[in-house]
Amino acid sequence: MAQAGIHALAGAAARKVVPRREWLLLGIILGNVFPDLDNYAVAVATLGGLNTHGLHRTFTHSLLAILAAMAVFFVVAQVRRQPRWTNLGVGFGVGIGMHIILDLLIWFNGVELLWPWDGWVNLWEGVEPPAWFATLLDPAELLFIVLYLVWLAKAARDHHTNADFLATLRLWIIALVVLFIIFTPLAYLMSRGFLTVFGVAYLISITAAFIITIRMRQTIEA
Ligand SMILES: [Zn+2]
After folding, report:
1. Residue 3 C-alpha to ligand 1 middle, in angstroms?
2. Which of 42, 93, 126, 149 falls 20 to 30 Å from 83 in CA-CA distance?
3. SS3 state of residue 216
4. Please, which residues have CB less than 5 A from ligand 1, an ion?
């Protein structure tokens, strides 16, 4: 699991190489974050007492997801007669592709690349991270989303964009730093139930990152 914030920052780094088209970079960053929203399916299944196997790193982490996202946005572009939706879809597909590659490279797990067919790819087969490190990976999610939001804040100040949102953004950053400080010791101290409590904070933070990205598209496109 590369952290969602790492994925978002990877999308933002694409800024240097992608051509300037309306909503293209926005799509790339959103596509980089999107696949891990499959954790909502995990949360719903957990709450319903169902088996969570096959929900994470499967349908949203597949070649089919890339094609589906591109197709949906292409149709929207035709209906609305706005080419920027096609750009958004191309970016979204590229972003999901980047997410899959990064997930394969870091950390210690695979993805169901050919979902719904059997296509589990795991470059880390048989490699186990040290326990202290594996434990740190969960609270680190919050830290990396903070880093992504800090990048957004800096970009907004540099480009003089989204000035009306910067105060709210600062509150999000402070709140997530506080959650990171709380959850890091909890990850080591709580032997049971940590993932349930942490899962709520995680879903809030990744959803916030997704929505704030859309809210701050002016900054991303600047
Ligand atoms: Zn992922």
Report:
1. 8
2. 149
3. coil
4. 35-36, 103
